[in-house]
Structures are given as structure tokens and as C-alpha cells.
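Write out the 3D structure for:
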Amino acid sequence: MKIERVVTSISWIPSEAIKGALKVPFEVGMAHYDDPLPDVIHDLESLRAADKFRFANELRAWIEIEDSSEGWGGRSLPSRGDSRITGFGYSGGGQIGSTTLRLGSKEMTFAAAAYPTIQRDPEVGPNYVKFVQTAGGRTGAPAPRPVPHPPFFQISAPTAWTTLNLTIYSDGRSEFEVTGASPFPRHWIYDHEGKLAAKSGLIDFKDWSKHAFGERTPWGAEDSPALVTAVETALERELSFLIMRAGKKPEKRKIKAGKALTEQGQEGNELYLLLDGVLQVDVDGNVLAELGPGAILGERALLEGGRRTATLRALTKCTVAVAAAENVNRAALEELAKTHRREEPADEQQT
């Protein structure tokens, strides 16, 4: 019997994620930011053809199982009970699209540079096989910029990538992990059913543009650790869209790592949307959760008397959008508050 499983990372550029001189083409309409990705992916190739993402890492792999004492290809593999893993392999890879720059009525399309997909030798256990794959590349459009180490000036764009692990078990289960990723752009992770399952918690365009090339990539000698957070609820995503796209553009606020956005017990009448970074939820001195991009924060104070029910502290540098209470539907906030039971232990929460 053949068991095939997949985990996919899709990387895209959120609005206003680029800083410095390289932001200019986006501001004048030559280049474009990306719309948020769907909650479920059905056809990765269609998304690529429609220019909906920058690159994707599709780690698709399989194992063969048979109830037999015979080895595979003369090789004796570990078994569990009567189920023997008799074969395994990769069947996916990376995808990367072209970049189109627009100047008035004219367009220039640059073919992207896809780097060779790195597929490490699988780790074979008594009842599982673990696969590790790195995929990525760089846009074909030039990105001239100074860098702090040789050659001190780069023309080619920085490299973007993710490194994914996928473990397939002989009983059909599978698990995934994001073990490395470039600090830019945003990476969303989809599970075997194509459902959004995790997100990168922090993007750092400045660090990426200065360092992500040559030896400082997995194709050289380095990978970057990935900061991954849980996915917000569908209701939070709906409210996020309303906060960012409907009516007056919200104020944005930056919080340094270690600083508090809110303090438990203080008065407050603002609602927050976490745009980037990771916030820690602390109630009565107990850490209950860590929240990533897309989380809606502060609704409890608006609904329960105007005092903050938790301290929200930045674990990394963070950016939040600030929304006035009157601009958000109260019924939606009441529904959202039901899912934010943060006074409970972290493993029982729904955040």
C-alpha cells in the first residue's frame, strides 16, 4: 500500500512589508504587494499562474507498506508488527513565478531564478520515514542595494526559501515542522488537506535584504530558524479584512521586543490587529498564549467594562493596527471573545 502526504509553504508579500529605497517601485505601482492567500488551497499551479504568490515549497512524499517479512530491494528496513516500510521517496518540489514590473502602459517580465530543490536523505525509523526539503530562489527583477559584507553591493535580489520536515507513519498519520525560513517574505503553511495550518510570525525585510545571499542561504552554508505561530480563527481573518480595507485606514503602532502593548487592569477602548511579530498573553503573572500575525486583540475590554483582562507583551518587535471600537461590529466581537478563553491553560485555549 502506498501512502502519500504533503505539506506546502507559500510565500507572499503583505502590504507595506518592504522598507527603504526598494519600497519605491511598490509605491508608484511598478511592482505590487500580494493579497492574502486563501484559507484552503485546491490547485497550487493555478495560484502560481495567477501571480498570487512569490514562491512555494511543496514537500510531497510517499511510503510503501506491505505485510511481509521481505526487504525492499535487498535492504532490510525497520518494521512495526507485521507492517513493513518497503519503499519511500519524494514526489514534490519548489515552484516560483516570474516578476512583472509596470511603467505606464508598458510591462517588463523577469524570469525568476529557482534554486535547486534540496531533498535530504530520508530518516527511516521503526514505523516512520522523515523527509526534509528546502526550496526557494530569487526574483529575476534587479534589486540594487549596499550590503555590509563582500561584495558590499548587490544587484540580484535576495534569496527567499523555507525548509520543511514531513514525517509519514505506517498507520497513515503525518506530521510537519518548519525548521528554517528566510526572514522575508511572509510564509503560510498548509497541511495535507490543503488547509492553512501555521504562519511565520515575523518578517524582517531589512535583515533579509542585507544578508540573504551567497553563503548565508541553505545553498551556501546557513539556514535561518523559523518563528512559526498558530493560525487565527476564520472570524479574526474576516475582521482583519474589515479593519484594514473598510473605511478609514487604521493607525499603525510599533512595539519593541519586551515592551507591553496593554497592561492587565488598565483602561482601554482600542481594538488591535497584530500585523507582524509575536505577542505573549499574560494573566495574573501566568503566560497563557503566544499570538502571531492576524490575531485580533483587546475585544474583552471593549465588551466587559473597559479594563484590560490581560497583559500583552511583545516577544519580538511587533506592528499592530489600531481600530476604534465604533468601527467594529459588536456582535462579531462578542463571538470572537468566546474563542479567546485565555484564563484557561494554554493547551485548552482556542486563540
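Residues 341 and 348 are 8 Å apart (CA to CA).
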